[in-house]
Design goal:
By secondary structure, this protein is mainly α. The protein is built from 16 helices and no strands. Helix 1 packs parallel to helix 6 and helix 5 packs antiparallel against helix 14.
């Protein structure tokens, strides 16, 4: 039984690895690959905007209609269209495929989380193990494999695009506008002074673009085939037996919104949004204001490889370690690392002579992200066991809100202000998370007291009957 459960977790993990090798690589490249009138960044905004809507309306409906397995398959096909849209990108093809991807994103992540959580809880019941420990280990294994997509996606793009004779470089005579001092105004001034050396187009030949998109599309197709032929369907009838009637979009919306009546869900919103803020800052602002500004765009892929590799390793480590340390200690560690990185980024003036530091920051931040991604997903699954689809829909919803906000103010605020925004969201999120832990502790304590009272009452009744 353990082998069967483990096989399914590995199949899901490698399916996501292949799919996000393609999408992750494309997301990192969008601002450079499709820079014309901000098409690349606009497509990412559409992706996460539609992801918000799909997270609200679709996950419970689709999962109940076709199950977790086929929800994953259909959603993965939506992601493949984005790679196809990048073959010949324009405002119609790329925006439309971005919307399709976003629509598929909500059901994809909700079905994955439901599958992993349900599998973990059922296996824990069969073996008598602690539910949280098993679910944490399953999510740790998933993120170990999945997060390595950041390595492979960026490695593929680096190897392919390094063959380009006309590499896009951003040469800065002065680095005073890099780092926390990077602002939209200074960007405009720099672009005016360097207009002769910086191309307004991507500078990537059609042959290399087609090669890269062909590889990414192939990865997506293989991911779909892997899920179709090797993943077992999971029966959710036990979890849904108390619900009557056929699911509709209206019921799905009500289920997702009804989840917000749970005070614990509301308290976890800031920490969930922080996950989107942190990832959005790293993928857009850190790569642009620190790496590209000081080193050149050709270093972005290598820096993100460092983030992906470290994130992958520590996802598994913390998923296993949590059963010995508990959630709170690891979340506090994640907060301490993120706060330290934010303060250091505010004070550091990037310079090409400090090459190693450019890789240290994403490595450290990946440790924090590994903790948040792994344990927060598992926490949602166990905390809201009776409404997993709606809970994970809310998770993707609020994380996507964080992404959208991060991308929306990307070309408006200075980097220093963005760092303060991320820091504020982190502090608020951690405070409210600790409130949730306190509520759960008090609830468990009261339940234990009630059980003791019931046992004492039963014992007294038995004694009276005997007498």
């Amino acid at each position: 039984m353990e082998i069967k459960h483990l096989k399914n977790i590995i199949i899901v993990s490698f399916g996501f690895l292949l799919l996000f090798t393609a999408y992750g690589g494309l997301q990192t490249l969008q601002s450079s690959l499709n820079p014309e009138k901000g098409l690349g960044v606009a497509s990412l905004s559409v992706v996460y905007g539609c992801l918000i809507l799909s997270s609200i309306f679709l996950p419970p409906l689709i999962i109940k209609k076709i199950g977790c397995k086929w929800t994953i398959v259909v959603s993965m096909c939506c992601y493949i269209t984005y790679s196809i849209g990048n073959f010949k990108p324009n405002w119609y093809s790329l925006i439309i495929t971005s919307a399709i991807l976003g629509i598929g994103g909500g059901p994809l992540w909700a079905s994955k989380c439901t599958y992993l959580t349900t599998s973990g809880i059922r296996y824990a019941r069969q073996t008598g193990k602690e539910k949280m420990d098993v679910v944490n280990q399953y999510f740790g294994l998933f993120f170990l494999i999945y997060q390595s997509s950041g390595v492979w996606g960026n490695l593929i793009s680096s190897l392919v695009l390094n063959q380009n004779a006309n590499k896009v470089l951003y040469d800065n005579i002065s680095y005073s506008n890099c780092g926390a001092n990077n602002c939209p105004i200074s960007n405009a001034e720099v672009s005016n002074t360097t207009s002769n050396t910086t191309s307004s187009v991507s500078g990537v030949s059609d042959i290399l673009r087609y090669t890269l998109m062909g590889i990414y599309t192939g990865c997506g197709v293989i991911a779909v085939l892997l899920i179709v032929f090797f993943l077992d369907q999971i029966d959710l009838s036990e979890e849904q037996k108390e619900e009557n009637g056929n699911p509709t979009i209206w019921k799905s919306l009500l289920g997702t919104m009804k989840q917000l009546k749970d005070i614990r869900q509301c308290l976890l919103i800031p920490l969930t949004m922080f996950s989107g803020f942190q990832q959005g800052f790293l993928s857009s602002d850190y790569t642009k204001a620190y790496v590209t500004c000081a080193l050149g765009i050709h270093f972005v892929g290598y820096v993100m490889i460092c983030f992906g590799a470290t994130n992958s390793i520590f996802s598994m480590v913390f998923g296993k370690l949590s059963q010995y340390t508990g959630r709170i200690a690891l979340f506090m560690l994640a907060a301490a690392i993120s706060i330290s990185c934010i303060i250091a980024l505010l004070l550091w003036s990037p310079n090409p002579n400090q090459l190693a530091i450019f890789f240290i920051f994403p490595a450290l931040w990946s440790v924090s992200d590994a903790i948040c991604q792994t344990l927060l997903n598992a926490f949602y699954g166990v905390l809201f066991d009776d409404h997993k689809e709606a809970a994970f829909a809310n998770y993707r919803l609020w994380e996507s809100v964080g992404f959208v906000i991060a991308f929306a103010y990307s070309n408006v605020l200075c980097v220093s202000v963005k760092l303060y925004v991320v820091l504020s969201m982190l502090l608020l999120g951690m405070i409210l998370y600790l409130v949730v832990e306190f509520l759960e502790y008090r609830k468990q304590k009261m339940s234990a007291q009630d059980r003791n009272v019931e046992m004492m009452t039963e014992s007294t009744n038995v004694q009276n009957t005997t007498e």
